[in-house]
Specification:
Layout (H helix, E strand, L loop, with lengths): L3 H39 L4 H19 L1 H18 L2 H7 L4 H42 L10 E6 L2 E5 L1 E3 L4 E11 L2 E14 L4 E14 L13 E14 L11 H6 L3 H14 L4 H29 L6 H28 L5 H24 L1
């Protein structure tokens, strides 16, 4: 049951958090409008699309992105004001321990963390679909890959090659599909181009050449001797329809692809990419683990914020906020460096993503113990 002290601190915590983040979001929106206004006017974007497709989805994305930082700033701001008014002296003099004072802070941090987890895993990915679609349509003039000589493993032992791909027409040129078994090529299909048929989910190929390689039967090979080509079957077709585990959505830039997948869809997507032998598994796993690890930083930054600002110091609120911002920047830097290690294959994604939280947990524990003295 919440007591008067709990309700007092929790009300100030939550109130300061939502006020500060709302204020900053208003500033972000003003800057975003000034930056994109010319694009809105030149593209004749409907006002309804600007409000509901862009900014209605802009707010939860950036609000959640900066929530741990604003939790930290909010805690330091109102706690240092309480310390300046010697409210903590009165609370501690009544026999309340510093650990007990921390209780409403942790309740507030829990509410923000749970909200952030729900937003990260389920709500924001869906809103990102609308927001990114809006930006690609009106701001980026659509998205078209500039990749050349594209190789994709579409199934175990099956590699797709395209010299180039057009996202607007969903058309690929100089296509080949190679099948490999036991480190040997067992077949290859070549075509001048292929175009996506959205009606039945197949690819239409033009000027198709197929080559099937059949190796000598095992019972005809002497021990210790390699298998040799037994025969080849060639086939040419002017057109051909094929259905493969590859579609236009696989050519969406992978950053956008993972941003729009809710938790369960992202999990299934990673499993499928592993089966295909994708080289970008680390990027996808980092995204999945970050959605959980980043909200939990709220607890750590809350403890650090309370520990730093619960004492009245020379320099006041400004100095405490400055120290808080420096620590926040260091945390963000650690997160960036550790995730870079993960995407480079130098560390396991799960460990790399949680390293900043683990390190800053020790910082939080040290500051908490020091504040209790």
């Amino acid at each position: 049951m919440l007591k008067i002290l709990d309700r007092y601190i929790l009300r100030r915590f939550i109130g300061t958090f939502f006020f500060s983040i709302s204020l900053m979001l208003c500033i972000f929106i003003v800057f975003d409008i000034s930056e994109k206004l010319q694009d809105f006017v030149s593209s004749k974007v409907p006002l309804r699309d600007i409000i509901f497709d862009h900014y209605l989805n802009f707010i939860p994305y950036y609000g959640n992105l900066f929530s741990p930082l604003f939790t930290f700033i909010s805690v330091i701001f109102f706690t240092s004001k309480m310390a300046a008014k010697t409210e903590f002296v009165a609370i501690l003099s009544s026999g309340t321990s510093f650990k007990r004072i921390l209780r409403p802070y942790m309740i507030g941090a829990t509410l923000i963390t749970v909200l952030s987890l729900v937003l990260n895993h389920f709500i924001i990915p869906k809103s990102n679909r609308v927001r990114i679609g809006f930006e690609d349509k009106y701001i980026n003039n659509g998205y078209n890959t500039d990749e050349r000589n594209i190789h994709k493993q579409i199934a175990p032992g099956t590699v797709l090659y395209m010299s180039d791909y057009d996202n607007f027409s969903n058309n690929a040129n100089n296509v080949s599909i190679e099948k490999i078994a036991n480190n040997k090529q067992t077949g290859i299909l070549k075509a001048d181009n292929m175009k996506w048929d959205s009606v039945d989910g197949t690819w239409n190929l033009q000027n198709v050449f197929e080559r099937e390689i059949i190796y000598s039967p095992l019972d005809s090979v002497k021990p210790g001797m390699p298998r040799h080509i037994f025969k080849e079957v060639h086939k040419f077709s002017p057109t051909k329809k094929i259905k493969i585990d590859f579609s236009p959505k696989d050519m969406i830039r992978f950053q956008s692809k993972i941003e729009v997948l809710p938790f369960f869809e992202l999990k299934d997507f990673i499993i499928k990419e592993k089966q295909k032998g994708s080289s970008r598994i680390e990027f996808f796993e980092v995204e999945m683990y970050k959605r959980t690890a980043f909200p939990f930083a709220t607890f750590i930054l809350t403890i650090i914020g309370v520990s730093l600002s619960s004492r009245k110091i020379r320099g006041g609120v400004g100095l405490q906020i400055a120290v808080g911002l420096v620590l926040s920047c260091i945390y963000i830097l650690f997160m960036h460096v550790s995730t870079t290690f993960a995407t480079s294959g130098l560390a396991q994604p799960l460990i790399a993503v949680w390293i900043p939280n683990i390190l800053f947990s020790f910082v939080a524990f040290y500051l908490f113990k020091k504040a209790q003295q």
